[in-house]
Structures are given as structure tokens and as C-alpha cells.
Amino acid sequence: IICPTRSYSETLCMCLVPFSKPRTRATHRIGPHSFNILSLLIGSILGDASVEKHGEGTRICFQQEHSNNAYLLWFHRLVADLGYCNIVTPKILTRLGKGGKVRQLSRFKTFTYASFNWIEEAFYVKKEGKEGKEGHRVKIVPTIVEEYLTPLALAVWIMDDGGAVSYGLKIATNNFTLIEVNLLCEIINRKFGLNVRPGSAGVANQYIIYIPSASLPVLKKIIGPHMHPSMYYKLNSQL
């Protein structure tokens, strides 16, 4: 039986490889992975998703506040239909945030794949700690982004980190360096014919990507078909 959301080759691979069995060792989840799932994941990693090592493999973690629950459930269905995570619907969790504020959120993770290790190695570097303290991992922008930044990946990234502003749209890239933000702007402009540029995030050494209103009609055509309706507002009334 061919699943309508998968190609014949993807379906055949899933018959041969136990992608969707929860207790399969990471070293047995060896791929191959379709370009579509990789672009989906990398678009999300540019946004809110995180990548973590787990045993001998790597898994991708997704989390959204309750206000974005409809989007997270839609995204979970995309990943689950491709066989990359548990099909059980993520539950709403309650957590205590800063200042004692109660937060409601939903989250899920992909299965663990040894063949995802290269993604973790590409997107994270280890920073040395100061005065003998343990170092920490920092997310960076690898050069592979250009290959995998498809309209779908761009849509996911904007749904995660985009926001409507006066006369345009911004993508929050606060944790990336100015060099990395410039690189992302160059890739977006080159691949999609937009006119985006770096901007200040209002905090020292933090930056955003600014997409002016003149580029929004083009952006709408590129990412609109890939967006969840709950996120249309981020295109500043362009949908």
C-alpha cells in the first residue's frame, strides 16, 4: 500500500527499515532520508527546534506555547505521517516559568537516528566554559542551510520565528552572530529573489532579519501554500 503523503521509494524504505518502531536502536535507523523531511527539519532547526544527542544517535525536539498548539499539532502530523515520530498526539503540559509564571506548552521529539548525527554536528559547536566551568553547546548557521532552505523550510522557519512588524516582517535570529545573519540574508535573497536585510533586535549584539513590505507579496507566493492557517497573520495581512 502506498501512502499518499509518501513517494514509492519512501514507502519501500519504510518497509525495509523500522523507522516507526519505538524501541529500534538508533544505529538501525539508517535512512535514507528524503530531501523533503530534511528540509522540513532544517527549517525548524533554524527556528524553535533543538537537536540533542541521545545514546548513539540524534533526535530533533519541537516545542510550542499553548497559543500555538494548533500549529504544533499540524507539524506533528507532518512528521508522524512520514514515520519519524510517535503517532500519539502531543499533550498540553504545564510548567512553572520565570517569576513563578505558569506556562502551558506542547512538545514532541523525533525518533533517534544515528543517521541524524551529521545534523547535530553541523548546527552545534561546543563553547569552552570559563574558569573551569563545563562548556555548553551553541547553535550556529552551517553552510548546508542553502541547500535545504526550500519554500517549505522557509515557511516553517517563519512560522516558528517570524513576526509581523510595521511595514514588513521580521525573523528573530537573536542568537546568531551578525556574520551568520548576513549569510542567511544572502541565501534568502539569492534563492527566493527577496530583498531582506539584517536589522537590530534592540539589544546589543543581537540581530533580526527584516523583510520589507515590498517583498511580502513575493514571500506570500513562496511560503503561503506551506503555512498553517493559524500562522497567516505573520504575513502582515498578505493572506
From TrEMBL:
GO MF annotations in UniProt: endonuclease activity
Domain of life: Eukaryota
Keyword Mitochondrion attached: yes
Domain Homing endonuclease LAGLIDADG: 39-217
Alphabetized UniProt keyword annotations: Mitochondrion
Family matches, as SUPFAM superfamilies: Homing endonucleases
Task performed by this protein: Mitochondrial DNA endonuclease involved in intron homing.
Protein name, as recorded: I-AbiVIII-cob-P
Taxonomic source organism: Agaricus bisporus var. bisporus (strain H97 / ATCC MYA-4626 / FGSC 10389)
Gene it is expressed from: cob
